[in-house]
Design a protein that fits this description.
The protein is built from eight helices and no strands. It has one domain. The protein is mainly alpha-helical. Helix content is 71%, strand content 0%. Belongs to the TRAP transporter small permease family.
């Protein structure tokens, strides 16, 4: 299995997961609006679920956004450097960003473990207080907080893979043009 095949499977799986999460988010939001304005009542768990789904979607989509070049970048220095220097800068920038992602994974996991045992507030109210269900039936906030280390881990892995690819380009005598198909990326007008 080649690297490109693994990336293609990853992209397809991640896109399907993100579409499913966004569909659930849209469905719950629509249901909440209908309940609130159509039936003059609301679901106590809907807004909290939408907030958590939005967190997951945002953090999981980060690596796909990076891959597509949709993350904000300051290219002033890169564009001012010679082509090989720009490739060196891109490699160093990816390595530095990957280190930052690693720090966020480490502390994100520590934080999730530290406070993650608490129940999700709206679900605790719904399951325990309203229906008298056992405490173990309420999902912990760990599943919300673990989105950060997972999303940053995926982004960090992608940054490291690209840094390795940039390093190979440098070794083979490539330049920054090889990254962008012949010309550095331009800002949209």
């Amino acid at each position: 299995m080649t690297f490109e095949t693994v990336l293609r499977v990853y992209r397809t799986t991640m896109k399907a997961l993100l579409v499913a999460l966004i569909a659930v988010l849209l469905g719950v939001m629509t249901l909440q609006i209908v309940m609130r304005y159509g039936f003059n009542g609301s679901l106590i768990w809907a807004e909290e679920l939408c907030r958590y789904l939005l967190i997951w979607v945002s953090l999981l989509a980060g690596s796909l956004a990076y891959e597509r070049g949709e993350i904000a970048a300051v290219t002033l220095l890169r564009d001012a450097l010679p082509r090989r220097g720009a490739l060196c800068l891109a490699t160093l920038a990816n390595l530095a960003a990957a280190v930052l992602c690693g720090v966020l994974v480490h502390y994100g996991l520590r934080y999730a473990a530290l406070v993650g045992a608490q129940p999700i507030p709206a679900l605790r109210f719904l399951f325990q207080d309203s229906f008298g269900w056992a405490a173990w039936t309420v999902p912990p906030v760990y599943w919300v907080y673990v989105a950060l280390p997972l999303g940053m881990g995926l982004l960090g892995l992608r940054l490291l893979l690209d840094a390795g690819r940039y390093g190979l380009l440098l070794k083979r005598g490539g330049s920054v043009d090889d990254l962008y198909g012949g010309a550095p990326a331009e800002l949209p007008e």
